[in-house]
């Protein structure tokens, strides 16, 4: 814990550098969950660096003020270059119609250069999605994976000048779950059903499924990485996972609401160790510029590659991120 917090402080003091201006000139970038926090800050970075940015929202009024914010922050470069689209990741139908609409939009007439799948939630209380899964698992794992698969198929278009990037926002917390019983659960109801069973919801735990949802997403991305290869084994779409580090956003709002003490703890913890959304979102920009030989890498600052390998070794499947 001391080690992790020391690294968090270091990240706060030495921010990830941004690439030169105009690095994304002529590119079209999608950011999901762009109304707040890291998604909003990432939209500002990409617009400032010259991209046309597609921002997703669940509520158009919230989306319009986010879009205005991005255009204002990006100044003259961002004017008229941001686009709003509706996406609710509680429902598969919304994910599918979103991708269908995206393919038809004028801004995507030359395809999509970068997709950053950022939207995510933390739930303290059990909530079920209309699809029947626990909502953290629905949004962070299942709908993110579905979007990733649908986008990958489309982004694999032959004859492009540059390799497109598909970026999945995970979290360092994917290293936390104790997976020793996962094989047993898999043989019983299945792991997803286990985590979506209200009777098994651990009351009193702050964010029961968050780390599980991010580890499950990490496993799904391993499969997506394999599918990103073309017939001759070349990488058609560069796929990465990214962790922005600890960032002061509203993500932990449900945790803060559990008591006045927790509200205080969350704000002190984020205040002392949390980076700004601007700093955290710089890792998304880094992940959107990786080279082909970094395909599959976990982009983050907390660990060196060797340290991550040592932590990740406890995971059951081989990791391509290293
Ligand atoms: N903050 C951190 O310290 C931290 C650390 C590691 C990883 N992350 C990851 O970073 C990502 C962004 O988190 P954040 O800290 O910026 O949180 P945030 O401020 O709460 O923003 C979350 C975004 O996701 C959207 N979203 C939530 N549920 C959605 C749904 N069902 N369908 C579509 N969009 C939905 C929200 O849109 P609405 O406005 O519609 O709610 C919002 O734009 C998450 O994946 C999180 O796990 C964050």
TrEMBL record:
Gene3D superfamilies: NAD(P)-binding Rossmann-like Domain (3.40.50.720). InterPro entries: NAD(P)-bd_dom_sf, SDR_fam. It comes from the Eukaryota. GO terms for molecular function: oxidoreductase activity. Keywords: Oxidoreductase. It holds the Pfam family adh_short. Coiled coil: none annotated. This is Putative short chain dehydrogenase/ reductase.
